[in-house]
Amino acid sequence: MEKRSSHGGKRLGAGRKKGSSTQEPTVVMRIPESQQQLVRDYIQMYKSQQPIVALNDNLISYPSAALQNHSYPLFSSKVAAGFPSPADEHMEKRLDPNEFLIDNQDATFFVTIEGQSMIDVGLMPGDKAIVDRSKKPVKNHIVLAVVNGEFTIKRLGIDANGRPLLLPENSSGNYRPIIINEGMQFEIWGVVTGAFRRF
């Protein structure tokens, strides 16, 4: 009688644990070692639908899980610089910065701007760009995109052949459009809806 091997075959407790999958078929991939944490964070973000990702030494952050409502005076007078004069003390209304900046809290995260390729639209190095994953990107939107593993913020365009273009906003001529060709890794992570900075 042939002796049965103790190796191979179905074993008690083997296989994927319940609840450990995204309930979709999976594939095996090879990724650069340096990108392991980014991929793990992205998968976690996908599963939980929370923007908890890390990018280039934590350049991505996200709103507090429970934004508190805080409103401050918004004066109706427009001023070139300085504070409204005593003659214009009446307030138009109160402004909640969270409500003003964030359309969809669960789909919003912040990116720290590096470089000067978008300075003509007011995105300066060190600014925090507001990215909304729930908005559908269309031509002329400013988007956060991944191209061949590198993150970039550019204006979305379409060339004469229907290919996506990522356009810089810097009139110096030092930055060229990125043409997305077949075979390139390309994904849009979200639409940039605004930015803020602290002086």
Overall morphology:
globular
Q: Strand portion, in percent? A: 25-35%
Give the structural class. Answer: mainly beta
Helix content class: under 10%
Rg (C-alpha, Å): 23 Å
Parts with pLDDT < 50 across at least 5 consecutive residues: 50-58
Distance between the amino and carboxyl termini: 83 Å
The total of helices stands at 2
Task: Characterise the protein shown here.
The protein is mostly beta strands and 199 residues long. The chain contains two helices and ten strands. The protein has helices at 36-48, 97-101, and strands at 60-61, 72-75, 91-95, 108-112, 128-132, 142-147, 150-158, 164-167, 178-179, 186-196. The strands form two sheets. The chain has an eight-stranded antiparallel beta sheet with strand order 1-4-5-10-6-7-8-9, with no helix packed on it. The protein has a two-stranded antiparallel ribbon with strand order 2-3. Strand 7 (150-158) and strand 8 (164-167) form a beta hairpin. The relative contact order is 0.13.
Task: Record the SSE blueprint.
Layout: H1 36-48, E1 60-61, E2 72-75, E3 91-95, H2 97-101, E4 108-112, E5 128-132, E6 142-147, E7 150-158, E8 164-167, E9 178-179, E10 186-196
Antiparallel strand pairs: 1-4, 2-3, 4-5, 5-10, 6-7, 6-10, 7-8, 8-9
Features:
single chain; 199 residues; mainly beta; 8-stranded antiparallel beta sheet; two-stranded antiparallel sheet; 2 helices; 10 strands
